[in-house]
Structure formats: C-alpha cells, structure tokens
Amino acid sequence: MKKIRNILFVRIAGFTLYLLTGLSFYGISQQDPVYTQYMNNLLTIQPAYAGISGSLNITGISRAQWVGFEGAPNTNTLTINGPLRRFNVGLGLSIVNDKWGPIRQNGVYVDYAFRVKLRQDQFLSFGIKGGFNIYQAYLTDIVVNDPNDPVFAYDVNFKFLPNFGLGIMWHSDRFFLGVSSPKILKNRIQSQSTETVYREVLHFYAMGGYVFFLSDVLKFKPTVLYRWAERTPSFVDFSGNFLLYDRVWIGATYRLKNSYGLIFQFNVNTQLKFGYSYDQTTFHPTQVNSGTHEFLISYDFVYGRRGRQIVPRYF
Hints:
three-stranded mixed beta sheet, 18 strands
C-alpha cells in the first residue's frame, strides 16, 4: 500500500487523490492543472478573459512537473481567443491534455465573454465556459500487494464528463480583478466495478494584478491567484515580474507553503513571445524531485485598421 500511496499522492501541491481501502474507493482532489505562468493562461480557468487582449491570440504551454518523480503530472495546453468588437464579445477555445500517475484527462472547452464599458478604458467582462473532459484511469497498471483487490480490478475507460463554468472580470490597460468557477457540475466517475467511484469537485478562483510604471524603461507587475477546491487545502500564488524596455520579463513566484520559482519571458516583437519558468517545492525538494519546467509560446495576430489591442499584453 505504500507504493500505491506514493503514486496516487503525486499531486501533494494541488492534485491530491485520497486512497481508501475496503469496499469502495472515493477520490477527492484539486483536479484542475496548475501553472507557474498562470497570468498568461487565465483562459483555462476564467471565461471572462476571452478577447481581453484585443487581438486573436494563440498560446501554448507545456508543463513538466516534479521532474524525476515517477508518475508526476505533465500538462499541455493550447488556448485561442479573440474579440468581436462590433458586438463587444470575446470568444475562446481551450484544449488541455493532462496526465499524472494512472490518470489521463483530455479536455475541450469554449468560452463566451460579453464586455461592458464602465468609464474611460475600464471594462466589466462576463464569461461563460462550456465543454467536456475525457477521463481515463489505468488502475490495473498499479502494482498492489493484493492482486485480487476489486478496487483495482478494472480501469476507467473514456468517461465523458460535460461541464460548464462562469466568471467575471473588471479590467483596464493596467489592472485586472476577477473571480470564476470553471467547472460547476460534480460529475460522478465509475469504473466497470460498482465499488470504484470518483467524483469531480467544485473549484473557485480569485485573481488580480496591476502594472506599475516605474520609469520609461521599467514596469513592475505583481499578480495573485487564489484557488479553492472542496475538501482540499487552498492555495495562493504570488508573483512579481519586471518588464524591461517592453521586451524582457524577469520575475519570481511563490505558492504559499508549496513552491517557489523564477520566470523569464522574451517579447521577440509586439506579437510573438516566448516564456520559461522553473520552480521547486518547499518540502525537501532535493529528496523528492528535480523541479518543474514550464515552456510558453504566445502569438497575437493583428489584422486591419481596427486590429489593435484593447489592453496592452501585460496580462
């Protein structure tokens, strides 16, 4: 059972799966992936973010978490979003591939945001998200002490999990503040054995950020992200990034009582950006893993005379 727990407890930082032996297996976890460069990937958790950049944006993030730890999380995400200015609407698409231990999830979600102008350059954006996850759990691949344990006698194969979420953001060219719940339905997941049951849980996010203009060549952007999930510990991410000559981002991040890391991003031009982050856990990092690597590429398509951004790409 120690080996089982080592595999299934692989998401100590945010993806915790509790194993109970006996006649039933019930898992409660923070099931949404986490990101170090979350400020550039808000669409996955905040539907009101769709179209906020003012141009058609495509962003890809690849995250290898806890490198060297068997069964560690690995997440790949592609997001596409852009505005329909004539209707004050933003549209978005998120594709997520997430695997950790015996678990595989592939999700596709679309986003719709409606933006209301408050005053000057400030907007209030309301968003709705809808889509599905395909969930798999290869429980029969886990090495157990009792090969006749009915809990691990069957896999969970291609479970279709539809869901929807809501969000709201108040933003301008220099700040954003929002709350969201990207998955509201609590889907029940069951294998061929009626004794094995999982259930999705409700997640809630609160987020904010502000850009300080320190000089003509230097800007500072602090951001914060609060994550809450039922029956699991809450997490708070703090980050601070300096922008030099509107070209290079250099910063650091800290996940309260969990991890810390460095962030580097380079704006090749006003449209293309590359990013990299490295973070390490605060719980005996040298004994558990060799850190987390996250790679980002983002591109803005600017088109026509009206192809300008509603806000600069600070967020």
